[in-house]
Amino acid sequence: MNYLLCVVGFVVLLAIAGADGAGECGRNSPDMEAMKLIPCAEAASDENASVSRSCCLQIKKLGQNTKCLCAVMLSNTAKSSGANPVVAITIPKRCNLANRPVGYKCGSYTLP
Ligand SMILES: *[C@@H]1O[C@H](CO)[C@@H](O)[C@H](O)[C@H]1NC(C)=O
């Protein structure tokens, strides 16, 4: 039992450290950056929810590095907080971000 807890704890630590996909967002892991998208939680899980201004502001900041934005939207943190990648990927569009990279490949998803 203790052993199992250790293994689980270690895997969680690795995830927090961003061992997978490290680098997309520079020093911070995508999972850390995902904390900034807390205002987007509803918009990322419900395609019909209106996107809050504070969410759009964060998306705009993160979106200056599209690779990072993709990594954040597809991160385990985003997923475990209920974000649906298919829906999350539509947020830049729903924010009417003028300079968003339409057609950019976010993993297996394409930015609308
Ligand atoms: C969003 O609205 C559409 C059209 O009204 C509906 O078909 C769909 O089920 C809704 N999605 C959610 C997550 O509520």
UniProtKB/TrEMBL annotation:
The keyword Signal applies. SUPFAM superfamilies: Bifunctional inhibitor/lipid-transfer protein/seed storage 2S albumin. Keywords: Signal. One of its GO terms (molecular function) is fatty acid binding. Gene3D superfamilies: Plant lipid-transfer and hydrophobic proteins. CDD domains: AAI_LTSS. One of its GO terms (biological process) is systemic acquired resistance. InterPro entries: Bifun_inhib/LTP/seed_sf, Bifunc_inhib/LTP/seed_store, DIR1-like. Residues 32-102 form the Bifunctional inhibitor/plant lipid transfer protein/seed storage helical domain. It comes from the Eukaryota. Pfam families: LTP_2. Residues 1-21 form the signal peptide. This is Bifunctional inhibitor/plant lipid transfer protein/seed storage helical domain-containing protein.
